[in-house]
């Protein structure tokens, strides 16, 4: 059971980090001028 808990926590954390990173990139793309978004 311990290893399953670790796996679930790892997946949840990875998903959260991925979503946060995607959101940050989207925000950065909106804030920066298109010539800097290369």
From TrEMBL:
User: Which Gene Ontology biological process is one annotated for this entry?
Assistant: symbiont-mediated killing of host cell
An example Gene Ontology molecular-function term: pore-forming activity
Please, which domain of life does this record's source organism belong to? Bacteria
Can you name this protein?
Phage lysis protein EssD
Please spell out the taxonomic lineage of the organism that makes this protein. Answer: Bacteria, Pseudomonadati, Pseudomonadota, Gammaproteobacteria, Enterobacterales
Q: Which gene encodes it?
A: essD
């Amino acid at each position: 059971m311990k290893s399953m808990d670790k796996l679930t926590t790892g997946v949840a954390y990875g998903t959260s980090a991925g979503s946060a990173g995607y959101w940050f990139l989207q925000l950065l793309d909106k804030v920066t001028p298109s010539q800097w978004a290369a």
